[in-house]
Amino acid sequence: MQHTVHSIATVHSPYKQKFGVARQPGLVPAAKVCIELNREFTADSIRGLDTFDYVWISFIFHDVITEDWSPLVRPPRLGGKQKMGVFATRSPHRPNHIGLSLLKLERIETGKTVRLYCSGADLLDGTPVIDIKPYIPFVEAKPDAAGGFAAEKPEELTVNWLPASGAGNLAAAEREIIVQSIAQDPRPAYQDIPERIYVMAICNYEVKFQIQGKNANIISIVESMSD
């Protein structure tokens, strides 16, 4: 029997473009999102969810849904030089473009619209959510499990604010998410061009920075004109 999957919610995220989004959930604790459920899902649909600390979010990689997929991909963790099977990676280029993230549930807001506020997100603004489930530690936590090529957390960059960057105009929370996101090194794995200036759209700002060795230097912060 054929069944159509429908979106149940939409993500409101500080990440406005694919470049710069945390590659895994939890790597950027300051990345906070609001998951807004469709009006048909009332407070009854999340009754009891507030007793859990984490939630599984199933979603659609909507920004690449028109792109093709391949059975072999080049994971950034391997420098973009070694191929792995798509089902051995978290690549968004998948046959069904479905993603899964484990997020910290900070609070729930009920009313005409139900909203879940989560942190540690790796979700693009506008992401369609197709399911929400509670994380159950006693069955799902496997701290001794083998992690394959992604067994350890990647090394982070040291992020520096250049004097003329305009960092003083930002709120502490905005500075925190920008630093944590750039520290993950958002560049394509194969790209190492010290003189290149990268632009990240985040928190309604355009952030320009350069990466030289293990240092990321933030050049400027300009409020985006798109919003």
UniProtKB/TrEMBL annotation:
Residues 5-144 form the TsaA-like domain. Keywords: Methyltransferase, S-adenosyl-L-methionine, Transferase. InterPro entries: TrmO-like_N, TrmO_C, UPF0066_cons_site, YaeB-like, YaeB-like_sf, YaeB_N_sf. GO terms for biological process: methylation. It comes from the Bacteria. One of its GO terms (molecular function) is methyltransferase activity. Belongs to the tRNA methyltransferase O family. PANTHER family: TRNA (ADENINE(37)-N6)-METHYLTRANSFERASE. NCBIfam families: tRNA_TsaA. This is Putative methyltransferase, YaeB/AF_0241 family. It comes from Neisseria animaloris.
